[in-house]
Amino acid sequence: MGKRATNILIGGEAGQGLVTVGQLLSKTLVRGGYQITVTQDYMSRIRGGHNTFSIRVAQPTQTGVAAPIETIDILVALNAETVQVHKKKMAPGGIVLLDASIDACELDCHKMPLKELAPKPIFENVAALGALASLLGVARELPAALVASNFAKKGEAVVNENLAVLNAAYEWVKTAGISFPPLPKLDSPAAGNLMLNGNEAIVFGALAAGVKFCSFYPMTPATTVAMGLIEFGPKMGVVVEQAEDEIAAINMGVAASYAGARTLVPTSGGGFALMVEGVSLAGITETPIVIVLAQRPGPATGLPTRTGQEDLFLALHAGHGEFPRAIFAPADVEECFTLTHRAFDQAEKWQSPVFVLTDQYLADSYRSVKPFDLDALPAPVLPGDASDNPASYVRYAYTENGVSPRLVPGGGEYLVVLDSDEHTPDGHLTEDLEVRVRMQDKRLKKGDGLTQDLVPPTYHGDPAADTLLVCWGSTRGAALEAAAKLHDRGTNTAVLHFSQVYPLDAAQFLPILQAATAAVCVEGNSTAQFAQLIRRETGFDFPKKVLRYDGLPFTATYILDKLSPETGDEY
What we know:
By secondary structure, the protein is α/β, with parallel strands linked by helices. It is built from 19 helices and 20 strands. The chain has a 7-stranded mixed beta sheet with strand order 9-8-10-11-13-12-18, with helices on both faces. It has a 6-stranded mixed beta sheet with strand order 2-3-1-4-5-6, with helices on both faces.
């Protein structure tokens, strides 16, 4: 188990506190210097249903733990259903910790006396934390410091009660006779790492980019982006507005950006479907705006709390008419930060809508992240607020690269005229068809600039790959692990990953695709949307595709099984 990290799965009903236990344990492990990958799987219910919180933990120097895994080393069952659902996934030597109230268990089960360890039900989460941390060999000081800081506001008495429960849980493990290999001790734990999920990193990336306005209507899994800005934004002058619907949200965002505020609009597929006219408004008015589109399976409400990569075409073609755009697809928490920051600069630089395309898995997946180097970030691109000759200023002047000078209205004696109809360079409505053609050509020129500025795909693995796994967004971790497994079996394998899926520059990747013996597109939808996009842009047709659309994130085992069912074993 040490070679492939330890996977802990906490299962139970919504409302039983499994997320609290999972978050406390995850933060304890991060503070201890370990790296983690968290996967949350939950049903669309306030209470009940079967939910899980999975933590894959490894040493900081260990590679290949950037994705979920099928097998379970420690199963924490808060109800009997958890044992039945997951018993076939237990790894050799795996154990089950279950609440003492659960009777039947045919596996290597150990009953946790949570009610005995915790004098009040509210303390049971801390008891479970203590039992797990002790079992993993984590120094007691780490969870104790976390518990003390978490409950400090409630007073010393509450802190001491929780610490007593934590200590009791540690002592119970010593006498319970449970045999499980502890995590390896770290010689020099990396102090100061952050525990962030994808949506939190998007929030911090937006704040670092100077976001000043966020308009939204709640929709899982994007809502926590707005919630994060509500929590942290006021200290930095950010205004967050919950609109009456998504149509209002996108139009408020366009208006705020027109007035000079860097604007973010987070949503998911069903909500974004209502926003497409507003995206066209941003296109013709050449107003920068960043849209976070957190994907989940559709159509319609679909699987509202599960993951997928089904909205690439929606983002690519949203809006009537033709206008340029850029679409980023972060692979991990770090890229959620850096690409959100970049999205704001690209939107402002090219005066176009820019998308950050994430998904439920990445939105909810906690990782151990080094603090971001804010000093290394480029200075924000800002609109102008002064004109050398106010009387001659025209908002949509023809330029060589298609980008007209953008000034903030009200900043001086110049006049900013905007129109959602086709317009002349000075912003007034026109039906002069020659002007129409020139203005449309001007707008489309910005697409060339977006292409020149794009983030190229990254290549990982053997220089001459027989099997090339091509993926985008959050599928990278699983693809890298699958490639490593194939390499160990003697197959030259590599991964070509796209963190920007539009626009594309064929010169950056087409020779790589053509050189591979077998290029396989790996993506989370049923119609191979990215493979279709590459074929449209380059003519290259993938001979094989590995697709997943059951609402669960990719794992290396899933990819290997689809490539070769005979050899895609668990690992």
